[in-house]
Design a protein that fits this description.
The protein is α+β, with helices and mostly antiparallel strands and 323 residues long. The chain has helices at residues 24-30, 36-47, 57-64, 68-81, 98-111, 153-159, 173-193, 228-244, 281-300, 306-314, and strands spanning 3-8, 13-18, 55-56, 84-87, 93-96, 117-124, 128-134, 140-146, 201-205, 208-212, 216-218, 247-248, 257-260, 265-267, 274-275. Helix 1 (24-30) packs across helix 5 and helix 8 runs antiparallel to helix 9 (281-300).
Length: 323
């Protein structure tokens, strides 16, 4: 149900017309019913995200040549979908919401004949959601949809290298998600070619990565492992292969290690990947190996000599305080 929300600021009253957060599946259900003029207005707002957080309505009128009354009606319909918010003060403007960016990306995926249907949500994290999807040939796919706005900007900027936290004109959350998806897609393509066990990357549009179907669950949710030591050894082997290819995950945890139904190991998240030509790659690798070894020790009682693993698998020696 569409509703208005009244927000009180220190300076003025701002009226927003919009909806609560819309799911990707709900957005997908509206794609075919959206009119061409609605797509045009939505695309104008999206193309100007780098210049405007709130795009002036009068500029939409000038760009499109539509009447003010017609533009108002288009914006009203977009707000009913939950894709934009409209502001009446201090000037008439409209802001693209995450669900509006979802709509644009899903339409592009459909037009490129990559995705023809969106299924249920199968995973949710601090920085992304994962959905089931269907390809044009009936193949089962997974969609990784970036949602960086869930955690603080400074925490993201500290861990990521695609934007500067100190920059005076920081990009919008939507643009940050575009950048994050683009970077991870490049890393996935490279690692997949190098034989590292990552999801097979198929396409990247805006903030969505299309991947092969992930059939299983993340390690943190797996209740029983028949061979925990063997799984840990496979994880370390994939970390080594990535390291040999010049990449360190930088945030390895049971939340981004996927275990398939036949107990294959897939490392699924790489937005904070560090390349070996960066100075901090060794520290990141040591953290990754140490953390996952500690996890297996606590949960499964598997003891591992981290120093020996780092020395024998990676050729690294732990630096000791005062040594």
């Amino acid at each position: 149900m569409c509703c208005g929300r009244l927000l009180i600021s220190r300076r003025r009253v701002v009226i927003l017309v919009g909806r609560a957060m819309v799911t990707l599946r709900e957005t997908a259900s509206h794609i075919k019913e959206v009119r061409e003029e609605e797509w045009r207005v939505l695309s104008i707002i999206e193309r100007n995200l780098g210049r405007y957080e709130r795009f002036p309505v009068e500029r939409i009128v000038r760009i499109t040549g539509y009447s003010k009354e017609f533009v108002d009606e288009v914006i009203r319909r977009l707000a009913e979908y939950g894709w934009v918010e409209r502001f009446l003060q201090p000037y008439e403007s409209v802001r693209l919401l995450t669900s509006g960016a979802d709509a644009i990306a899903l339409r592009m995926l459909a037009e490129k004949n990559i995705v023809v249907g969106v299924g249920r949500q199968i995973g949710v994290g601090k920085e992304s959601d994962v959905y089931e999807a269907i390809g044009p040939d009936g193949s089962r796919l997974s969609l990784k949809v970036f949602r960086l706005g869930r955690i603080s900007f400074r925490d993201i900027a500290r861990k990521r290298d695609y934007f500067d936290a100190s920059a005076p004109n920081r990009p919008s959350w939507i643009l940050r998600n575009y950048m994050a998806a683009r970077k991870e897609f490049r890393v996935l393509k490279y690692l997949y070619r190098c034989g590292v066990s990552v999801p097979k990357p198929i396409a990247n549009v805006k903030h969505i990565i299309v991947m092969e179907e992930l059939d299983g669950d993340i390690l943190i949710n797996v209740r029983d492992l028949p061979d925990p030591r063997g799984i840990l050894e496979r994880i370390i082997e994939e970390v080594r292969k990535a390291y040999d290819a010049g990449v360190v995950n930088g945030d390895l945890s049971p939340f981004n290690i996927f275990i398939t139904r036949d107990y294959r190991v897939i490392i699924i998240d790489w937005p904070q990947a560090i390349y070996r030509d960066k100075g901090a790659h060794e520290d990141a690798l040591i953290r990754d190996v140490t953390y996952i070894a500690q996890y297996f020790s606590k949960k499964y009682g598997v003891s591992v000599d981290v120093e020996s693993v780092l020395r024998e698998k990676f050729g690294l020696e732990l630096r000791r305080e005062g040594g």
